[in-house]
């Protein structure tokens, strides 16, 4: 009988506390500034140096490029990430010399099939809705139409 009374006491005490749950699909959670979410990729900045591919611990990034027909250097051809095995470690963004890859606060990757976790160049370029504050100054357009 004493155990029942103690249990009811704990229940009544916790009923008066504020709720700690979120209405997730309706109200998305605000993540901290240093949260490592899905990457954003800007193909215009990429110089096809392959540093992101070499440093990736899970080998989930594939990058191909071809020689530029007029200028010196390379032009990006494909850039793909397999989010099925990506651990969002932020190493690819740290080694990128041109900051073509930046992390966002976007974390919603729920899909119905594994094949949908292979993201290509176009999808990663459009993933710029929640850029981290420390990287947002690089994506703001300056007067004259240049970034």
TrEMBL record:
Domain 4Fe-4S ferredoxin-type: 37-66, 77-106
Taxonomic superkingdom: Bacteria
Binding positions ([4Fe-4S] cluster 1): 46, 49, 52, 96
Record's bilayer topology term: Peripheral membrane protein
EC class of the enzyme, as a word: translocase
Annotated Gene Ontology cellular component terms: plasma membrane
Location(s), subcellular: Cell membrane
Co-factor(s): [4Fe-4S] cluster
MF annotations from Gene Ontology: 4 iron, 4 sulfur cluster binding; iron ion binding; NADH dehydrogenase (quinone) (non-electrogenic) activity; quinone binding
Record keywords: 4Fe-4S, Cell membrane, Iron, Iron-sulfur, Membrane, Metal-binding, NAD, Oxidoreductase, Quinone, Translocase, Ubiquinone
Co-factor note (free text): Binds 2 [4Fe-4S] clusters per subunit.
Similarity remark: Belongs to the complex I 23 kDa subunit family.
Stored HAMAP family: NDH1_NuoI
General function of this protein: NDH-1 shuttles electrons from NADH, via FMN and iron-sulfur (Fe-S) centers, to quinones in the respiratory chain. The immediate electron acceptor for the enzyme in this species is believed to be ubiquinone. Couples the redox reaction to proton translocation (for every two electrons transferred, four hydrogen ions are translocated across the cytoplasmic membrane), and thus conserves the redox energy in a proton gradient.
Quaternary structure and partners: NDH-1 is composed of 14 different subunits. Subunits NuoA, H, J, K, L, M, N constitute the membrane sector of the complex.
Name recorded for this polypeptide: NADH-quinone oxidoreductase subunit I
Organism this protein belongs to: Thermoactinomyces intermedius
Lineage: Bacteria, Bacillati, Bacillota, Bacilli, Bacillales
């Amino acid at each position: 009988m004493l155990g029942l009374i103690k249990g009811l006491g704990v229940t009544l005490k916790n009923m008066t506390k504020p709720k700690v749950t979120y209405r997730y699909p309706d109200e998305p959670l605000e993540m901290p500034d240093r949260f490592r979410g899905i990457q954003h990729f800007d193909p215009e900045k990429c110089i096809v140096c392959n540093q992101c591919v070499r440093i990736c611990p899970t080998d989930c990034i594939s990058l191909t490029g071809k020689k530029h027909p007029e200028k010196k250097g390379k032009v990006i051809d494909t850039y793909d990430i397999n989010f099925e095995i990506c651990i969002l470690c932020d190493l690819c963004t740290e080694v990128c010399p041109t900051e073509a890859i930046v992390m966002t606060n976007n974390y919603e990757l729920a899909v119905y099939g594994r094949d949908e976790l292979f993201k290509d160049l176009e999808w990663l370029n459009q993933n710029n809705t929640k850029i981290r504050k420390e990287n947002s100054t690089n994506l703001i357009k300056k007067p004259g139409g240049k970034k």
